């Protein structure tokens, strides 16, 4: 089980949200939210997710059981309004010190501080479990997300130019990274 405690946060509109690990029974709601953001066409590489409910439940269960993965949601007004995650060790032993971060907020809940509070929560967890580095990818056109990542100290580490064609323009795939600890050994 993920051990990280639920956290109540106040959004910029004065309403409250709760940040906590996703639950298996929320698989359908998570899929819907990811697909809504995917349908906007300009923020994430993912097209419509065709995962079945069972696969999504398995995905959530895996995150709950794996100590190097954290998948959290923000719940407000009884709904899931944001999702974010850090998954470390996607290749196994060789990259278990690095977590890859992803984040999305439902359109009506953006710019209310949820991205900031989720990032604080995720990085506290990453430090607590001993990750040395967190990295992510973001479209060069997504200035709001880039500003959020820079605010927490992420720096650009490279970019694949014109790697994506969005609705009306190209976007570079910008790779950003944040070191949490000094390297051990060589
Ligand atoms: C990007 C995203 C996760 C940010 O979360 P958020 O809750 O909207 O962001 P916050 O309200 O916490 O603001 C975080 C920072 O973003 C920046 N920001 C906010 N609004 C902005 C705007 N209109 N233009 C530029 N930067 C902006 C600011 O630096 C802000 O920090 P500050 O409030 O201390 O000034 C969210 O907007 C989102 O999900 N967007 C669509 C999906 C997406 O882009 N996902 C990321 C893919 S890599």
Characterise this structure.
With 186 residues, this protein is α+β, with helices and mostly antiparallel strands. The protein has a domain at 7-131: Aminopeptidase (3-Layer(aba) Sandwich). 27% of the residues lie in helices and 34% in strands. The protein contains four helices and eight strands; from the N terminus they run ββααβββαβαββ. The chain has helices at 27-40, 53-65, 114-128, 143-151; strands at residues 7-10, 16-21, 69-76, 79-88, 98-105, 133-139, 155-165, 170-179. It has an eight-stranded mixed sheet with strand order 1-2-3-4-5-6-8-7, sandwiched between helices. β5, α3 (114-128) and β6 (133-139) form a beta-alpha-beta unit. The longest helix has 15 residues, at 114-128. It is globular. The protein starts with 6 loop residues before the first strand and ends in a 7-residue tail after the last strand. The relative contact order is 0.15. Coenzyme A binds at residues 37, 43-44, 103-105, 110-116, 138, 142-145, 147-148, 151. The site of coenzyme A has 21 residues, from β5, α3 and α4.
